[in-house]
Every structure is written in structure tokens, then in C-alpha cells.
Amino acid sequence: MADEPAASTAPGAIIRAMSGRPADDLTLEALTTGGLGPDDIRISADALRAQARRAERAGYRPFAENLYRAAELVDLPDSDVLAIYEALRPLRSSSRELEEVALRLEQAPAPRCAALIREAAEAYATRGLLQAAAGPERRRS
Q1: Which pTM does this prediction carry?
Q2: Is it the case that residue 138 has pLDDT exceeding 90?
Q3: Exposed/middle/buried for residue 17 (C-beta within 10 Å: 0-12, 13-18, 19+)
């Protein structure tokens, strides 16, 4: 595995950008000549899952889980990802609001991310980092 290129997964497998272009086509020359678009430099869910499998094989299970969660998020709109980030900031969300985020993620489907939101909600409850259920008027900026 040490000699294996970062973009490879298995013999004959091709890692692709979000645009569908093979990773081997994503060169500095293509970038400088204007041949790449925004989706050419975004990673695909398949590429993230392939990297997660590599991390698992190398014994990096927590890192692999992060990559699997990232793979679940790549197809969500940026605004949804930012809303999740905002909801996870301390004292920004109630337990109910975090559960609503988890339910939306399950529907995405993003079950690993949903489980992480629930785990965070439990940790926040233990540490007093949940917003009271009174509502958004208590939110800080």
C-alpha cells in the first residue's frame, strides 16, 4: 500500500472528481489553461469512500469514519452543510433541534452523520451546551 498512489482504490478502479473526470485528468496544466471547473476539484463520494476503505485497511478507523461521513455530505447543498455546522455550535441548538437535524440527515440518507449529531447532542446535554427549548431568540451570533 505504501507504493500505491493516493487516488487508487483497486486494480483497474478509477477515482473520479465530482464532475466525473478521472483523477488523472486533474493536472496543474488543466487548471492553468482553464480546463477545470468547480466540480472538477470537488471530491466525489466514491473517492471519499475509497479513501475510507484505505484508512480502514491501514488501521485508522476513526479517520475512516470521518471520510465515510464526508462521503454522506458531498451531495448535500452547501447551505445544508453550513446549517448543520451552525446547529452544532455550543448553545445554538436544543436537544429537539439537533434531533430534527439528525432526522433530516437520515432522510438524506446520511446515517453516520445522523448518529454523530445524536452523539453530539448527548455530549452537549452532559456538558450543559444545549440551548434551552425556548426558541431561537436566545441564540447568540
Answers
A1: 0.75
A2: no
A3: buried
